[in-house]
Design goal:
Layout (H helix, E strand, L loop, with lengths): L28 H7 L15 H6 L7
Length: 63
């Protein structure tokens, strides 16, 4: 396997980083890992969703 391993920095931010699918707000990769779906895709962030919804998974799309 010749893949380059990148060090993960939870506070790192980039302009090409994760964005909320609902409102487009930039979120950190750490936020995406915690509150995103299984693919680290964020469907709701603090700008457009309550923390209660994010903790319960109410912001994630249904099947």
């Amino acid at each position: 396997m010749n893949a380059t391993q990148h060090d993960w920095n939870p506070m790192e931010s980039s302009t090409a980083g994760a964005r909320c699918r609902n409102c487009g707000t930039h979120v950190t990769q750490q936020f995406a890992r915690v509150f995103g779906d299984n693919g680290d895709v964020v469907h709701g962030c603090p700008s457009c969703t309550t923390y209660r919804e994010m903790q319960s998974g109410g912001h994630l799309p249904g099947d």
